[in-house]
């Protein structure tokens, strides 16, 4: 199996053109590093979009995967399996939740959450109670339901007709939610930090206000922690850092450390509305994914690792601010834990992709959150030395782009 027989150019011939991947093709990874087909080394501050929380080729994850691969890969939900049972037990012990539903992605976890919220309202209050409130700029996945709940209309355009019964309020604007919420509301869904929307943390008072509105109107509060979960913000789940407890929480991305898995967590009372036969998925809770996720959870849910995320946050923010003092490129540096965003000043708005490409040339891989924000979501195990090396490379990239000047 030669890695040089296929190249990036082939992508444009054989793939549906819904992505435009970077020009190099990574072939191998280890901790925070990636190597491309030419053997060039990169520091990976993308973590596969906040997925490879423990970096690439983590020994504990490799061990879990290989051991389970030798036992059994797939059974379907006609049977249960030991890794799924163990993972569900650990997730319920570690969180507010009593019960877990497994699936394969963040979108599927949210799809399950929205369907459960509708079903619960239908069971307890009648079919009229079906409206979901979410937020402008939010992101909840790409199925037709989740993309419609999401607050970026461009992702729905051309796919109409879209599902109804969904309303959007501006993020962090409690008065706007108060104006929308009613007895017809079955759920409010919020990201504790909007990820794709620009790395924007929710105000603590806003989250408290949502909890109160949900309680007052018999609506469920859903936290989409697909990006913020599994240690990303410095607690196992971001809600733990607030004084708000959701009714439903969705998790994916970091949960599998790179193996596709999603989970919807909820209470015993709410879970009852997903009675036998009401919802399902062939692969959900498959033994391979659950075995890897169990290893991820064991590694991430440790006080030392979580405390280190907070410390590395400080180091990364300080480095970005120091860069900004020298170059005045960022309007704001924000985020939580190791989910950080640097919003470009007006003169550079719309050009985040140029910095991403220049950083790659300097050997460091970063993300954007839309055209105006550079996003950093490194593996939680990134070292201080790697942070320093990455920030020095980023600064060289920034200097180069600044020298070329803004595109008009
Ligand atoms: C990535 C993401 C999703 C979608 O997850 P997929 O696994 O791509 O379906 C949903 N919600 C949030 C907050 C995300 O960041």
UniProtKB/TrEMBL annotation:
Q: Which cofactors does this protein require?
A: pyridoxal 5'-phosphate
What metabolic or biological pathway is this protein involved in? Amino-acid biosynthesis; L-arginine biosynthesis; N(2)-acetyl-L-ornithine from L-glutamate: step 4/4
Q: What class of enzyme is it?
A: transferase
| Residues with N6-(pyridoxal phosphate)lysine modification | 253
| Catalytic reaction list | N(2)-acetyl-L-ornithine + 2-oxoglutarate = N-acetyl-L-glutamate 5-semialdehyde + L-glutamate
Which Pfam families does the record cross-reference, listed alphabetically? Aminotran_3 (PF00202)
Compartment list: Cytoplasm
| UniProt KW keywords | Amino-acid biosynthesis, Aminotransferase, Arginine biosynthesis, Cytoplasm, Pyridoxal phosphate, Transferase
Major site of localization recorded for this protein: cytoplasm
Amino acids binding pyridoxal 5'-phosphate:
106-107, 139, 224-227, 282
Record-listed E.C. numbers: 2.6.1.11
Q: According to the record, how does the cofactor bind? A: Binds 1 pyridoxal phosphate per subunit.
This entry's Gene Ontology molecular function terms read:
transaminase activity
* Alphabetical list of InterPro entries matching this protein: Ac/SucOrn_transaminase_bac, AcOrn/SuccOrn_fam, Aminotrans_3, Aminotrans_3_PPA_site, Class-III_PLP-dep_AT
Quote the record's binding site residues for N(2)-acetyl-L-ornithine. 142, 281
PANTHER family associated with the record: AMINOTRANSFERASE CLASS III, SUCCINYLORNITHINE TRANSAMINASE
Q: Which NCBIfam families match?
A: arg_catab_astC, argD, PRK01278.1, PRK05093.1, PRK12381.1
The family line of this record is: Belongs to the class-III pyridoxal-phosphate-dependent aminotransferase family. ArgD subfamily.
Subunit record text:
Homodimer.
Other comment = May also have succinyldiaminopimelate aminotransferase activity, thus carrying out the corresponding step in lysine biosynthesis.
Name this protein carries in UniProt: Acetylornithine aminotransferase
Source organism per UniProt: Marinobacterium weihaiense
Give the gene that encodes this protein. argD
């Amino acid at each position: 199996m030669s890695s040089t027989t296929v190249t990036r150019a082939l992508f444009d011939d054989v793939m549906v053109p819904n992505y435009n991947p970077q020009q190099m093709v990574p072939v191998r990874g280890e901790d925070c590093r990636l190597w491309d087909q030419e053997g060039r080394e990169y520091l990976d501050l993308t973590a596969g979009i906040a997925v490879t929380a423990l970096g690439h080729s983590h020994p504990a994850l490799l061990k879990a995967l290989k051991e389970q691969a030798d036992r059994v890969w797939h059974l379907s939900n006609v049977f249960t399996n030991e890794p799924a049972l163990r993972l569900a037990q650990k997730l319920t012990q570690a969180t507010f939740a009593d019960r877990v539903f497994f699936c394969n992605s963040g979108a599927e976890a949210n799809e399950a959450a929205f369907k459960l919220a509708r079903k619960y309202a239908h069971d307890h209050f009648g079919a009229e109670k079906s409206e979901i409130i979410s937020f402008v700029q939010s992101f909840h996945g790409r199925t037709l339901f989740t993309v419609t709940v999401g607050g970026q209309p461009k992702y729905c355009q051309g796919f109409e007709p879209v599902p109804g019964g969904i309303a959007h309020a501006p993020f962090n604007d409690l008065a706007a939610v108060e104006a929308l919420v009613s007895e017809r509301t079955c759920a409010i869904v919020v990201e504790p930090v909007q990820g794709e929307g620009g790395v924007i943390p929710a105000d603590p008072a806003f989250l408290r206000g949502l909890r109160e509105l949900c309680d007052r109107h018999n609506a469920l509060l859903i936290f989409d922690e697909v990006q913020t979960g599994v240690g990303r913000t410095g607690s196992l789940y971001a809600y733990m850092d607030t004084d708000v407890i959701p009714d439903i929480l969705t998790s994916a991305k970091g949960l599998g450390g790179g193996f596709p898995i999603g989970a919807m967590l909820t209470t015993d009372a709410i879970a009852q509305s997903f009675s036998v036969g009401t919802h399902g998925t062939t692969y959900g809770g498959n033994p391979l994914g659950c075995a890897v996720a169990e290893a991820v959870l064991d590694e991430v849910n440790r006080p030392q690792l979580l405390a280190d995320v907070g410390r590395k946050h400080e180091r990364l923010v300080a480095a970005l601010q120091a860069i900004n003092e020298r170059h005045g490129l960022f309007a704001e540096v924000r985020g939580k834990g190791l989910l950080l965003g640097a919003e470009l000043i007006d003169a550079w708005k719309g050009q985040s992709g140029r910095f991403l490409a220049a950083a790659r040339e300097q050997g460091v891989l970063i993300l954007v959150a839309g055209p105006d924000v550079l996003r950093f979501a490194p593996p939680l195990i990134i070292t201080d030395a790697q942070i320093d090396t990455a920030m020095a490379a980023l600064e060289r990239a920034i200097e180069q782009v600044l020298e070329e000047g803004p595109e008009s």
